Amino acid sequence: MTDSVTVPTTEPAKLMRPHAEQEYALELEALAAQDTRPRPPSWNLSPWAVVTYLLGGTLDDGTVISPKYVGPRRLMEVAVATLATDRALLLLGVPGTAKTWVSEHLSAAISGASTLLVQGTSGTPEEAIRYGWNYARLLSEGPTAGALVPSPVMTAMETGKIARVEELTRIPADVQDALITILSEKTLPVPELGIEVQAAKGFNLIATANDRDRGVNDLSSALRRRFNTVVLPLPASEEDEVAIVARRVEQLGAALELPTTPAAAEEIRRVVTVFRELRSGTTTDGRTKLKSPSGTLSTAEAISVVTNGLALSAHFGDGVLRASDVAAGILGSVIKDPVADKVVWNEYLEAVVRERGEWSDFYRACREVTG
Ligand SMILES: Nc1ncnc2c1ncn2[C@@H]1O[C@H](COP(=O)(O)OP(=O)(O)O)[C@@H](O)[C@H]1O
Ligand SMILES: [Mg+2]
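^ thats the input. predicted complex w/ magnesium ion below
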């Protein structure tokens, strides 16, 4: 008689947030398999296929590519075409216009790697852009190739991939300037070793910057000349913005394994309407002028207001997204300055929200949290 042996199966921990190239691996594979157009050196896809990956579409064999970016096709064409030249790409725009998102998806589609990333802050050192050293090895071996720690940019140069620099304008000007030689000469000298790393074909760089930061550390003109700038706009219409929020909320909800909430569409539309009206300073019908609050009220914030609302309704409510689930989140986004923004918000509540018959639940929920 043999005992049956049960092998314990441990499921691997699930990732909280897979990289774009992991999450959309099947789409990228399908695109690569069917893409017959010419590909720039070391690109995984042709520029046409990269734009299709970003904007979505249906391939000849019926594979559906989901849209990642919602906005003018031409902007994405300019961005992708730039990356096939010797100029780098600067994505500029107000916060929450998908600069980081587009940068991640572009590098995933072109290089299959979105992780060669430098996060720009006022404390970003030159080593983050050039290279650093493993100090234990540096002390025992002196400066050797083995003791050198390449930056993401150096790795991208060696392998002909896309490097990303987030929030370029927050980096101190002298550190930013380390990029000039890299982008103009396509080389990174390592004087300690008496060598240089020359960029392999396919190398390029995507930087993002918030135009609200402009002036903090203005890009030097020498550096600016190395970039083509693409300005990402706020969503043009309410329809677009509702579509973006609804899609992202659905993806985030699935990733967080929140129970699905039916009929969230109405509440999403209301959040977007409030954001757009306050942002633009007029009501949708154009009749009432409004003051705008100090915050950006970006699409990204609308996404997080709705996602938080879904978590509230799933765990503490009746499982349906209600006005009371989003009211506190909206308040938090609108009132950044406790005095001035509160005045703006109260005026909006009384002059606009209160007057809308079908918004009475929302008015009550907002009044309750506004105090
Ligand atoms: N036009 C758009 N198309 C698709 N998603 C968008 C768009 N605008 C904003 N988003 C969403 O907003 C979120 C935040 O964008 P992010 O890239 O972090 O903004 P930024 O870097 O410009 O501040 C992302 O989850 C993205 O999906
Ligand atoms: Mg960003």
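Residues 20-231 form a domain with the Rossmann fold fold (CATH 3.40.50.300).
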